[in-house]
Amino acid sequence: MFNILLCGVGGQGTVLASKMLANCAVNRGETAHTAETIGMAQRGGSVVSHVRIGSDAFSPLIPKGCADTVIAFEPAECVRVLPYLKNGGRILVNTLPVKPTTDTLAKTSYDAQQMLAFLKEQGVDYRPVDGAAIIRALGGAKSLNVALLGAASAMGMVPCSLDEMETVIRTAMKPQFCEQNLKALRLGAALIAE
pLDDT by residue (tens digit) across 92-145? Predict the structure, then answer.
């Protein structure tokens, strides 16, 4: 069984990314379960998506301490879900902060660098990805989620190949979104190869 936890804030495409991973597994004939926990607002609230792949996955929610991989679309959300990471698990984290609604309402001062420093202090295996550079290269943030999946696949952090993800993009997405998402997938993988 392989457990992947994706986290971010509403509007970043966390749920779509989790469904792409599940589709890859199902296309291979494997069992896949997904579930989402969504915060106080659809756009701007915390979003956590669980993906469990394998015949031993009987429930969709990943227990704490059992995630093989965390893909974090936002640094503070990564810190928030850290208890789900298993010993020896790996993290891919977008370094570009998106201030969640809860922090905006509470008028807190949020520093992404503090979150990344905290991850380093914990001694976890994490790989930062420059989300701002991806957004510049893509001309917008719409496909950042797919770029992060490309990076995770290239690092072997998810049990889905780039070819499998390309197939999902071509078959499950509307045609007008295919080329942009294929470009994002390849860009994410290329960033890791550099």
Answer: 999 999 876 666 666 676 788 999 999 999 999 999 999 999 999 999 999 999
Question: Is 2-193 a domain of CATH 3.90.1150.10?
Answer: no
Distance CA 69, CA 4 (A): 5
User: What pLDDT sits at residue 25?
Assistant: 96
Cβ-based neighbours of 25, under 8 Å, separated by 6 or more: 31, 32, 53, 159, 160
DSSP state of 98: -
In the chain, alpha helices (H): 14-27, 75-81, 101-106, 112-122, 131-138, 144-154, 162-172, 175-193
Rounded Cα–Cα distance for residues 190 and 98 (Å) = 24
Closest CA to 119 of 95, 152, 155: 95
- C-alpha to C-alpha distance for 59 and 35, rounded to whole angstroms: 9
Q: In the chain, what percentage of residues exceed pLDDT 70?
A: 91
Cα separation, 75 vs 127, in Å, equals 11
